[in-house]
Write a structure and sequence with these properties.
The chain is globular and about 70 Å long. The longest helix is centred in the C-terminal third of the chain and has 26 residues. The strands form 3 sheets. The protein has a 5-stranded antiparallel beta sheet with strand order 7-6-5-4-8. By secondary structure, it is of the alpha+beta class. The chain folds into 3 domains: about 120 residues, no CATH class; about 70 residues, SH3 type barrels, CATH 2.30.30; about 80 residues, Alpha-Beta Plaits, CATH 3.30.70. About 5% of the residues have low confidence.
Length: about 325
Protein backbone atom coordinates (compact mmCIF):
# COMPACT_ATOMS: atom_id res chain seq x y z
CA UNK A 1 0.00 0.00 0.00
CA UNK A 2 1.30 3.44 -0.87
CA UNK A 3 2.58 5.49 2.07
CA UNK A 4 0.93 8.84 2.59
CA UNK A 5 2.33 12.08 3.91
CA UNK A 6 3.46 12.03 7.53
CA UNK A 7 1.14 13.26 10.30
CA UNK A 8 3.40 16.29 10.76
CA UNK A 9 3.12 17.23 7.07
CA UNK A 10 -0.67 16.72 7.12
CA UNK A 11 -1.07 18.85 10.23
CA UNK A 12 1.05 21.62 8.76
CA UNK A 13 -1.11 21.62 5.64
CA UNK A 14 -4.28 21.71 7.76
CA UNK A 15 -2.95 24.63 9.81
CA UNK A 16 -2.16 26.50 6.59
CA UNK A 17 -5.76 25.94 5.45
CA UNK A 18 -7.15 27.21 8.74
CA UNK A 19 -6.96 31.02 8.24
CA UNK A 20 -8.26 30.75 4.66
CA UNK A 21 -11.25 28.66 5.75
CA UNK A 22 -11.95 31.15 8.54
CA UNK A 23 -12.13 33.89 5.93
CA UNK A 24 -14.25 31.74 3.58
CA UNK A 25 -16.74 29.83 5.78
CA UNK A 26 -18.56 26.90 4.20
CA UNK A 27 -16.04 26.58 1.39
CA UNK A 28 -16.35 23.29 -0.48
CA UNK A 29 -13.80 20.55 0.06
CA UNK A 30 -13.32 20.41 -3.70
CA UNK A 31 -12.34 24.10 -3.90
CA UNK A 32 -10.13 23.72 -0.86
CA UNK A 33 -8.30 20.71 -2.31
CA UNK A 34 -7.63 22.51 -5.59
CA UNK A 35 -6.30 25.61 -3.83
CA UNK A 36 -3.92 23.66 -1.59
CA UNK A 37 -2.86 21.09 -4.19
CA UNK A 38 -4.28 17.97 -2.58
CA UNK A 39 -7.22 15.58 -3.03
CA UNK A 40 -10.69 15.93 -1.50
CA UNK A 41 -10.18 12.84 0.67
CA UNK A 42 -6.76 14.05 1.89
CA UNK A 43 -8.10 17.55 2.62
CA UNK A 44 -10.90 16.07 4.75
CA UNK A 45 -8.46 13.78 6.57
CA UNK A 46 -6.02 16.66 7.18
CA UNK A 47 -8.76 18.87 8.62
CA UNK A 48 -9.71 16.06 11.00
CA UNK A 49 -6.38 16.60 12.76
CA UNK A 50 -7.38 20.15 13.73
CA UNK A 51 -9.95 18.82 16.19
CA UNK A 52 -7.00 17.67 18.32
CA UNK A 53 -5.41 21.14 18.33
CA UNK A 54 -5.83 23.42 21.29
CA UNK A 55 -4.40 24.35 24.65
CA UNK A 56 -4.13 22.51 27.97
CA UNK A 57 -6.19 21.16 29.63
CA UNK A 58 -7.80 20.50 26.21
CA UNK A 59 -11.35 21.16 27.34
CA UNK A 60 -13.98 22.06 24.69
CA UNK A 61 -13.43 25.79 25.20
CA UNK A 62 -9.77 25.37 24.23
CA UNK A 63 -10.10 23.16 21.15
CA UNK A 64 -10.66 24.02 17.49
CA UNK A 65 -13.91 22.70 16.00
CA UNK A 66 -14.16 21.69 12.33
CA UNK A 67 -17.65 21.26 10.85
CA UNK A 68 -17.99 19.44 7.51
CA UNK A 69 -21.55 19.35 6.20
CA UNK A 70 -22.49 18.17 2.70
CA UNK A 71 -18.91 18.59 1.52
CA UNK A 72 -18.56 22.14 2.89
CA UNK A 73 -16.23 23.25 5.69
CA UNK A 74 -16.45 25.71 8.57
CA UNK A 75 -14.06 26.17 11.49
CA UNK A 76 -14.81 27.55 14.91
CA UNK A 77 -11.95 28.71 17.07
CA UNK A 78 -11.70 27.93 20.75
CA UNK A 79 -13.35 30.42 23.07
CA UNK A 80 -9.88 31.03 24.50
CA UNK A 81 -9.03 33.07 21.38
CA UNK A 82 -11.98 35.42 21.84
CA UNK A 83 -9.86 37.60 24.14
CA UNK A 84 -6.47 39.20 23.40
CA UNK A 85 -3.42 37.08 24.11
CA UNK A 86 -0.38 38.62 25.80
CA UNK A 87 2.90 37.17 24.55
CA UNK A 88 6.41 37.26 25.89
CA UNK A 89 9.18 38.24 23.45
CA UNK A 90 10.27 34.61 23.06
CA UNK A 91 6.68 33.51 22.42
CA UNK A 92 6.19 36.27 19.82
CA UNK A 93 9.39 35.33 17.98
CA UNK A 94 8.49 31.62 17.95
CA UNK A 95 4.93 32.36 16.81
CA UNK A 96 6.11 34.69 14.04
CA UNK A 97 8.61 32.15 12.73
CA UNK A 98 6.01 29.35 12.76
CA UNK A 99 3.39 31.54 11.05
CA UNK A 100 5.88 32.58 8.38
CA UNK A 101 6.54 28.95 7.60
CA UNK A 102 2.81 28.29 7.20
CA UNK A 103 2.63 31.17 4.71
CA UNK A 104 5.15 29.29 2.58
CA UNK A 105 2.68 26.43 2.07
CA UNK A 106 1.24 26.61 -1.48
CA UNK A 107 -2.31 27.94 -1.34
CA UNK A 108 -1.78 30.23 1.65
CA UNK A 109 -3.17 33.72 1.19
CA UNK A 110 -0.39 36.33 1.08
CA UNK A 111 -2.98 39.01 1.85
CA UNK A 112 -5.07 37.05 4.34
CA UNK A 113 -5.49 37.27 8.11
CA UNK A 114 -2.40 35.15 8.86
CA UNK A 115 -0.20 37.40 6.72
CA UNK A 116 -1.64 40.51 8.43
CA UNK A 117 -1.01 38.94 11.84
CA UNK A 118 2.63 38.24 10.92
CA UNK A 119 3.04 41.85 9.77
CA UNK A 120 1.69 43.11 13.09
CA UNK A 121 3.93 40.78 15.08
CA UNK A 122 7.01 41.89 13.15
CA UNK A 123 6.05 45.51 13.72
CA UNK A 124 5.63 44.91 17.46
CA UNK A 125 8.96 43.10 17.71
CA UNK A 126 10.75 46.03 16.09
CA UNK A 127 12.38 46.97 12.82
CA UNK A 128 15.56 45.07 13.66
CA UNK A 129 13.67 41.78 13.85
CA UNK A 130 13.52 39.75 10.65
CA UNK A 131 12.18 36.28 10.03
CA UNK A 132 13.98 34.61 7.17
CA UNK A 133 11.64 32.53 5.05
CA UNK A 134 12.71 28.97 4.24
CA UNK A 135 12.16 29.68 0.55
CA UNK A 136 13.16 32.49 -1.76
CA UNK A 137 11.00 34.35 -4.27
CA UNK A 138 12.01 32.10 -7.18
CA UNK A 139 11.03 28.94 -5.28
CA UNK A 140 7.75 30.55 -4.21
CA UNK A 141 7.04 31.37 -7.88
CA UNK A 142 7.84 27.81 -9.00
CA UNK A 143 5.60 26.40 -6.24
CA UNK A 144 2.72 28.55 -7.51
CA UNK A 145 3.30 27.40 -11.11
CA UNK A 146 3.53 23.75 -10.10
CA UNK A 147 0.36 24.04 -8.03
CA UNK A 148 -1.43 25.47 -11.09
CA UNK A 149 -0.06 22.66 -13.30
CA UNK A 150 -1.23 20.00 -10.83
CA UNK A 151 -4.70 21.56 -10.60
CA UNK A 152 -5.06 21.92 -14.38
CA UNK A 153 -3.59 18.49 -15.30
CA UNK A 154 -0.82 19.95 -17.49
CA UNK A 155 2.75 18.66 -17.81
CA UNK A 156 5.74 20.95 -17.30
CA UNK A 157 9.13 21.38 -18.94
CA UNK A 158 11.81 21.79 -16.28
CA UNK A 159 15.43 22.84 -16.43
CA UNK A 160 16.96 21.11 -13.42
CA UNK A 161 20.32 21.44 -11.69
CA UNK A 162 21.87 18.21 -10.36
CA UNK A 163 24.32 19.12 -7.62
CA UNK A 164 26.09 15.75 -7.55
CA UNK A 165 27.06 16.03 -11.23
CA UNK A 166 27.23 19.83 -11.25
CA UNK A 167 25.19 19.85 -14.46
CA UNK A 168 21.87 21.00 -15.87
CA UNK A 169 19.32 18.76 -17.56
CA UNK A 170 16.01 19.20 -19.35
CA UNK A 171 13.08 17.18 -18.02
CA UNK A 172 9.46 16.87 -19.10
CA UNK A 173 7.43 16.00 -16.01
CA UNK A 174 3.81 15.24 -15.13
CA UNK A 175 3.65 16.97 -11.72
CA UNK A 176 1.65 14.96 -9.20
CA UNK A 177 2.16 16.55 -5.79
CA UNK A 178 4.27 18.96 -3.75
CA UNK A 179 5.69 17.76 -0.45
CA UNK A 180 7.57 19.65 2.26
CA UNK A 181 10.39 17.78 3.97
CA UNK A 182 12.22 19.72 6.65
CA UNK A 183 12.86 23.20 5.27
CA UNK A 184 12.75 22.10 1.61
CA UNK A 185 10.00 21.61 -0.97
CA UNK A 186 9.98 18.62 -3.29
CA UNK A 187 8.02 17.73 -6.42
CA UNK A 188 6.82 14.17 -6.98
CA UNK A 189 6.16 13.65 -10.66
CA UNK A 190 6.37 11.30 -13.61
CA UNK A 191 9.62 11.99 -15.49
CA UNK A 192 9.37 11.19 -19.20
CA UNK A 193 13.13 10.75 -19.51
CA UNK A 194 13.29 8.20 -16.69
CA UNK A 195 9.87 6.74 -17.59
CA UNK A 196 9.09 6.54 -13.88
CA UNK A 197 8.13 8.56 -10.81
CA UNK A 198 10.94 10.85 -9.62
CA UNK A 199 11.45 13.42 -6.86
CA UNK A 200 12.83 16.88 -7.65
CA UNK A 201 13.99 19.58 -5.26
CA UNK A 202 12.10 22.74 -6.15
CA UNK A 203 15.03 24.98 -5.17
CA UNK A 204 17.12 23.28 -7.88
CA UNK A 205 14.67 24.15 -10.64
CA UNK A 206 16.13 26.98 -12.73
CA UNK A 207 13.47 27.12 -15.43
CA UNK A 208 9.86 25.97 -15.71
CA UNK A 209 7.17 26.15 -18.41
CA UNK A 210 3.61 24.82 -18.17
CA UNK A 211 2.50 23.05 -21.36
CA UNK A 212 -1.06 24.36 -21.51
CA UNK A 213 -1.59 22.85 -24.98
CA UNK A 214 -1.44 19.25 -23.75
CA UNK A 215 -2.62 17.08 -20.86
CA UNK A 216 -0.64 14.91 -18.51
CA UNK A 217 -0.07 11.23 -19.24
CA UNK A 218 -0.17 10.37 -15.53
CA UNK A 219 -3.04 11.81 -13.50
CA UNK A 220 -3.52 12.42 -9.80
CA UNK A 221 -5.81 9.41 -9.67
CA UNK A 222 -2.82 7.20 -10.44
CA UNK A 223 -0.95 5.88 -7.38
CA UNK A 224 1.99 7.97 -6.25
CA UNK A 225 4.73 6.21 -4.35
CA UNK A 226 5.31 7.92 -1.02
CA UNK A 227 8.34 7.21 1.10
CA UNK A 228 9.44 7.76 4.65
CA UNK A 229 12.87 8.56 3.23
CA UNK A 230 14.29 9.71 -0.10
CA UNK A 231 15.80 7.83 -3.06
CA UNK A 232 13.85 4.69 -2.14
CA UNK A 233 12.69 4.39 -5.73
CA UNK A 234 16.26 4.56 -7.09
CA UNK A 235 17.68 1.12 -7.85
CA UNK A 236 21.27 2.32 -7.35
CA UNK A 237 20.61 4.11 -4.02
CA UNK A 238 22.67 3.13 -1.00
CA UNK A 239 22.77 3.85 2.71
CA UNK A 240 25.48 5.90 4.40
CA UNK A 241 26.08 5.92 8.15
CA UNK A 242 27.75 9.04 9.56
CA UNK A 243 28.94 10.04 13.03
CA UNK A 244 28.26 13.76 13.49
CA UNK A 245 29.96 16.02 16.02
CA UNK A 246 28.29 19.29 17.12
CA UNK A 247 29.75 21.24 14.21
CA UNK A 248 27.92 18.96 11.74
CA UNK A 249 24.51 18.92 13.42
CA UNK A 250 23.23 21.37 10.78
CA UNK A 251 23.04 18.33 8.47
CA UNK A 252 19.99 17.09 10.42
CA UNK A 253 18.05 20.13 9.17
CA UNK A 254 19.46 20.16 5.63
CA UNK A 255 19.23 16.48 4.59
CA UNK A 256 16.61 13.80 5.38
CA UNK A 257 18.27 11.46 7.91
CA UNK A 258 17.39 8.76 10.42
CA UNK A 259 19.02 9.05 13.84
CA UNK A 260 20.57 5.77 15.02
CA UNK A 261 22.14 6.82 18.31
CA UNK A 262 23.26 9.88 20.25
CA UNK A 263 25.71 10.31 23.10
CA UNK A 264 27.96 13.07 24.48
CA UNK A 265 27.23 15.47 21.62
CA UNK A 266 27.85 12.88 18.87
CA UNK A 267 24.96 11.67 16.74
CA UNK A 268 25.03 8.68 14.40
CA UNK A 269 22.65 8.98 11.46
CA UNK A 270 21.77 7.04 8.34
CA UNK A 271 20.95 8.76 5.08
CA UNK A 272 20.28 7.48 1.59
CA UNK A 273 22.16 8.68 -1.47
CA UNK A 274 21.78 7.98 -5.15
CA UNK A 275 25.01 9.65 -6.25
CA UNK A 276 28.49 8.74 -5.01
CA UNK A 277 29.98 12.07 -6.07
CA UNK A 278 27.39 14.05 -4.11
CA UNK A 279 27.88 12.14 -0.85
CA UNK A 280 31.66 12.29 -1.25
CA UNK A 281 31.52 16.08 -1.63
CA UNK A 282 29.19 16.33 1.37
CA UNK A 283 31.53 14.36 3.64
CA UNK A 284 34.52 16.42 2.48
CA UNK A 285 32.57 19.56 3.31
CA UNK A 286 31.91 18.25 6.81
CA UNK A 287 35.65 17.81 7.34
CA UNK A 288 36.70 16.90 10.87
CA UNK A 289 33.16 17.37 12.22
CA UNK A 290 32.01 13.98 10.86
CA UNK A 291 33.24 10.44 10.23
CA UNK A 292 32.01 7.85 7.74
CA UNK A 293 31.06 4.71 9.66
CA UNK A 294 29.73 2.77 6.67
CA UNK A 295 30.23 1.89 3.85
CA UNK A 296 33.97 1.33 4.01
CA UNK A 297 34.48 2.08 0.30
CA UNK A 298 33.15 5.59 0.83
CA UNK A 299 35.35 6.06 3.89
CA UNK A 300 38.40 5.08 1.84
CA UNK A 301 37.40 7.21 -1.13
CA UNK A 302 36.94 10.30 1.04
CA UNK A 303 40.31 9.71 2.70
CA UNK A 304 42.01 9.35 -0.70
CA UNK A 305 40.34 12.50 -2.02
CA UNK A 306 41.31 14.48 1.10
CA UNK A 307 44.95 13.40 0.72
CA UNK A 308 44.86 14.36 -2.95
CA UNK A 309 43.55 17.83 -2.11
CA UNK A 310 46.20 18.32 0.58
CA UNK A 311 48.93 17.20 -1.83
CA UNK A 312 47.78 19.75 -4.41
CA UNK A 313 47.72 22.43 -1.72
CA UNK A 314 51.30 21.57 -0.68
CA UNK A 315 52.47 21.63 -4.32
CA UNK A 316 50.87 25.03 -4.81
CA UNK A 317 52.68 26.41 -1.76
CA UNK A 318 56.01 25.07 -3.07
CA UNK A 319 55.46 26.72 -6.49
CA UNK A 320 54.42 30.02 -4.92
CA UNK A 321 57.40 29.95 -2.55
CA UNK A 322 59.84 29.46 -5.41
CA UNK A 323 59.05 32.86 -6.93
Amino acid sequence: MAKRATAEQRLQRALAMLPWIAQHPWVSLEELSVRFGTTVDDAEADLGLLSFCGLPPYTPDRLITVDIVAGEVRVRFAEYFDRPVRLTTDEAIALTAAAQRLLDVPGSDDDGPLAHAVTKLKSTLGAAFHVSSDIGPSVRAYLAQLRDAIASDHPVDVTYYTAGRDSFSFRRVDPLELVQQGSGWYLHGFCYRADDIRTFRVDRIVGLDILTNRNRTVTTSDPVRHHDGWFEDATDAFEVRLRLRPGAHWLLRAVPTTTVSASEGEIEVVLRAADGIWIEQLVLRLGTTADVVEPMWLRQRVADRARSILDRYDQTRIVEGSH
